Amino acid sequence: MSVLLVEAFYGGSHKQLIDLLQESTGDCLVCTLPAKKWHWRARTAGLYFMQAIPASPSYRVLFTSSVLNLAELVALRPDLASLKKILYFHENQLIYPVRKSQERDFQYGYNQILSCLVADVVVFNSAFNMNSFLSSISTFLKTMPDHRPKGLDQLIRPKCRVVYFPIRIPDVTRFLTEHKLLRQDRSLYTISSHESLNLWLTAKASPLASTREAQNELSGKRPSPAEPQLHPQLGGDTGALQGHPAPSQLTGQKATTLQPLHIVWPHRWEHDKDPQLFFQTLLKLKEQELNFEVSVLGETFTDVPEIFDEAREQLVDHIRHWGFMPSKEDYLSVLCQADVVVSTAKHEFFGVAMLEAVHCGCYPLCPKALVYPEIFHDIYLYSTPEQLCKRLQDFCKHPHLVRRHVLQVTTSRFSWNTLEEEYRALLTSDPSNESHAQTKNTASSEGT
Fold first, then answer.
1. Is 242's pLDDT higher than 70?
2. Do residues 241 and 112 both lie within one domain?
């Protein structure tokens, strides 16, 4: 076994990555701890793995996430020190949001800094994750009362690179609703500009026809007085009819117009995902007697915020699905039925759940912060809670327009098929591959 895969928190995206690497590598040994009591895993996993990892002269590469204190493990197991040590950051603790500043535990961020100093390669799942970590080291260390080390970011930076988290994108065609299948077909349908305009003018007479104003409401924008009132989804020089149905399709979409907007929230039930904001927004929609349904998915852990029980009681008439779905098939099926996926996160470095939902045809609404501007166009971002509420109000009033919108998000660049070669190169102990990958990553990071 030449590759040693170590995961101190074997659940969620951490588990997904280890499983993919194990399947791809084959020649590896996997050592894990269950995804429970995260804080205790971060404090004590090194001691556990000291005993759990069998000694072997064949190890060449050690891959682990930043939950593990790599410095402790290498000190406790000197035989692992000579391996190529890869540290993967799913998230960083230097900017983790806490409800009260005194609650921040210095040790978790400190452990991650130590691990970076010991590692040979430090991998981040997004440029936002990498840049926020490196730029926060000096400020974070000012918490120390005195004798603060300097220039640690300069020691760590040359080791760093961005390799996006790989998503295994399944074929969800069998789960897609009729209007999503129609929309998928329309995204591939191109005709001349003249024919596009004629079709739009014909459809404009229908009460279901979209207007520039309504489409701008969906994106939170308003047209300027001088802006020509052309169909918003006509595609550039090719005249692609991307977002508006042909007249023959309008009758078939009457049913979808009558269906209430289906909103999905597929995140961990924890404070850093800000469920408070999400449910407060839905309650405002309810007060305005707007028609909508909601599915609240995602994993739950030991301490579930009280807002979930309160919201379930107050939104009972709007709930379509509630709670974690152990079956991936069932989970994807719900995403395919939903219209809009919402993030209210205060702490997000990639967002697997959002991209999975987009792959299933959901219109994403994300904060204009964290990693989201790196992945999503401005049309899918909101800056304030008021903007989020306004966007959802418009969506509730015009659900058929959301269902016609052709998503401008390319999920394939985050797929395992796209990223597998990069991960394979990462796990090789060949220095020439390492040098090539580092050069390639530096060029991509500069262009981000």
1. no
2. no
